[in-house]
Automatic annotation (TrEMBL):
UniProt protein name: ABC transporter permease
Pfam families: BPD_transp_2
Lineage: superkingdom: Archaea
Originating species: Halobaculum marinum
Protein topology in the membrane: Multi-pass membrane protein
Length: 378
C-alpha cells in the first residue's frame, strides 16, 4: 500500500535532482562562456576590465530581467503543454498575438493591467484553436504549431495596420516599476516605508536592478515557483505528467486524458499571453515589421525548457542565461568595447545557446509527447 503514495515523492525528488544539475550546468557554462569570450576577444587588459564592468553593471542585470519575462512565461506554457503530451511549438505565435492584443487593449482602456488581460484572452483563444485541431481532429502537432505561428505572424501586423494605420502601434502606457506601483497604492506602510527601503536597495551596484524592476519580473518569479509546485505537488500536476508519460494508465485510473490535455494547452496559452503582453507593454508599443518584436523568443523558450529538462526552475535559469548574454551583447554594441564587428557580437547569445545544448542537451522527452490518445480507447 505504500508504493502508490511514494510515487509522487519519488518523482518530485527526481525533478529536484534534475533542477540541481541544471543549476550547476547553467551557472558553470555561463561563467565559462563569459570568461573565455571576454579574454579571447580582448586586445588588452583594459578591454577585459571594460567587459567585466559591463557584465556586472546594474543596467545589464536590469535588461536581462526584462528580456527574461516573455521567454520565461512562454517556456512555462510549453512545459505544461508538452508534459501533457501536446507539443506546442506555436509559442512564438501566441507571443505575437498577445503582444498586439495587449497594446490594443491598453490603448482602448488606458490600463496596462487590462492590456495584459487582453493579451491573455487573445493567446488563450489561439491556444484553444490549436488544442481543438490537435486533440479533437488529430492534426500533426508540429504542423499545427507552425500554422499557429504563421497565422499570428500575418494576423497581428494586419490587425495593427487596420486599427492603427501602421504595423507599429503605441499603447500609450507602460508598466510602472515596483516602487512607483507601491507608491500609487496609497497604503501608508507600502507607499512610504517599503518604497523608501526599495529605493535604498536600488542604489546597490549590481543587485539594485532587482529592486527597480517591473512588477512583471516579480510575477515571473512567482509563476515559476507556482508552476513547479503545481507540477510536482498537486493532483493536476500528476495528471499532466501521467498524460504525457502513460495516458492509458491515467485513463484506467478514471481521469479523462482529453480534458487534462485541453487544460494544459489552454494554460500554456494563458502563460504565453502574459509573456507576450509583458513584452509589448514593457516598451509601450507593438512592432509588427518583419518577424515582429517577438523575433524568435517563442522558439528560444522551447530551447530553454528543453535545456531545463521540463523543470520550471531549470527553464528560468536557462532563460536567464540567454537573456543575460543578450543584454551583454546590447551593452557591448553600445559601448563598442570589443575590436570585432558588431554583427559577430549580436551572435553571442545564439552561439552560446548552441554550445550549451551540445554540452548539456540530454533532455528526456515525455513518452507520449506528440501522440494522439482518446479517452476510453483500448
Amino acid at each position: 500500500m505504500s508504493a502508490p503514495s511514494s510515487i509522487p515523492e519519488a518523482v518530485g525528488d527526481r525533478v529536484d535532482a534534475l533542477g540541481t544539475r541544471t543549476t550547476v550546468a547553467v551557472g558553470t557554462v555561463l561563467a565559462a562562456l563569459l570568461a573565455v569570450g571576454a579574454l579571447a576577444a580582448a586586445g588588452s587588459g583594459d578591454t577585459v576590465v571594460a567587459v567585466l564592468e559591463l557584465l556586472f553593471s546594474k543596467s545589464t542585470l536590469g535588461a536581462a530581467l526584462r528580456l527574461s519575462v516573455p521567454i520565461a512565461f512562454a517556456a512555462l506554457g510549453g512545459i505544461f503543454a508538452e508534459k501533457s503530451g501536446v507539443i506546442n511549438i506555436g509559442l512564438e505565435g501566441l507571443l505575437i498575438i498577445s503582444a498586439f492584443a495587449g497594446v490594443y487593449a491598453t490603448s482602448v482602456t488606458g490600463s496596462v493591467w487590462l492590456g495584459v488581460l487582453g493579451g491573455v484572452v487573445a493567446s488563450t483563444l489561439l491556444a484553444a484553436l490549436f488544442a481543438v485541431v490537435c486533440i479533437e481532429f488529430r492534426a500533426d502537432q508540429i504542423i499545427a504549431g507552425l500554422a499557429i505561428w504563421l497565422i499570428a505572424l500575418g494576423l497581428a501586423p494586419f490587425a495593427s495596420q487596420v486599427v492603427f494605420g501602421s504595423k507599429n502601434a503605441s499603447a500609450g502606457a507602460t508598466f510602472p516599476d515596483i516602487q512607483q506601483l507601491l507608491a500609487d497604492t496609497g497604503i501608508p506602510v507600502l507607499s512610504t516605508v517599503v518604497v523608501d527601503a526599495l529605493a535604498a536597495l536600488g542604489e546597490l551596484p549590481f543587485f539594485g536592478a532587482l529592486f527597480e524592476a517591473s512588477p512583471m519580473v516579480y510575477l515571473m518569479f512567482v509563476a515559476v515557483g507556482a508552476s513547479w509546485w503545481t507540477l510536482n505537488r498537486t493532483s493536476f500536476g500528476r495528471w499532466v505528467r501521467a498524460s504525457g508519460e502513460n495516458p492509458k494508465a491515467l485513463d484506467t485510473a478514471g481521469v479523462d486524458v482529453t480534458r487534462v490535455r485541453y487544460a494544459a494547452v489552454l494554460l500554456s496559452g494563458v502563460l504565453a499571453g502574459i509573456g507576450g503582453a509583458a513584452l509589448s507593454l514593457s516598451l509601450g508599443q507593438f512592432v509588427g515589421n518583419g518577424p515582429t518584436m517577438v523575433n524568435g523568443k517563442g522558439f528560444i523558450a522551447i530551447v530553454t525548457y528543453l535545456l531545463g529538462n521540463y523543470n520550471p526552475i531549470g527553464a528560468l535559469l536557462s532563460t536567464m542565461l540567454f537573456a543575460g548574454l543578450d543584454a551583454l551583447q546590447f551593452s557591448l554594441q553600445g559601448q563598442d568595447v570589443l575590436a570585432i564587428p558588431q554583427s559577430l557580437v549580436r551572435t553571442i547569445p545564439y552561439v552560446s545557446v548552441i554550445v550549451v545544448l551540445a554540452l548539456f542537451g540530454r533532455t528526456r522527452i515525455p513518452e507520449a509527447a506528440g501522440e494522439y490518445y482518446e479517452s476510453g480507447e483500448e
